[in-house]
Amino acid sequence: MAERPRGGLPDARAPVSTEVVACGALAGHVRDIAARRGWPVAVRSLPALLHNRPQKITESAERAVVCALRSGRAVALAYADCGSYGGLDDLCARYRVRRLPGLHCYDVLAGPERVAAMFAAEPGTYVLTDFLLRSFGRAVLAELGLDTHPELWPDYFGHYRRLVWLAQQPTPALAEQAERVAAMFGLPLTRVEVGVSRLEQELARLVEGIL
Fold it and tell me: What does the domain layout of the chain look like in residue ranges?
């Protein structure tokens, strides 16, 4: 039997028998981690904009899970609960698959205790991630209609008191974007370096158990 490489890209000869159904906000990190670890997995990215309509997350994830299972692949869900209010847990129970722990991807990136403490200190915290910073114009401004109706800003964001950026792989460009977003809110910005190590640890628990 061919030995799986210890790092880098998976062996092209290794059959892909596992699929990770991932939130689009995490899919890039998931692919990078899988390549670095040499996991022979396929990553199916679902639209990150589903977070604006979380009631549709379970429905979309179920279609992807069923498709993967019918193709004979084992499946893992790179989602936390993500506003599904237990819908993804019900999905996991029905199809005997597992998801990432936590209520939100913030819990996966920073740890639930850290996130809980952050909101306890200031309930009016708006959380940014690298992905949200990159897509803020489309995912937030355009989706909420704020690009054409900026007068609605207080209705959506008037109750926030600060911004916290959970920085995974910060760059000068992302830092500048974070400052621009903070200026839109007119609120102070705190940058918290979280990296991707916790995501990698939790993803490994999912994937390595079914490879």
Answer: 18-103+197-207, 106-193
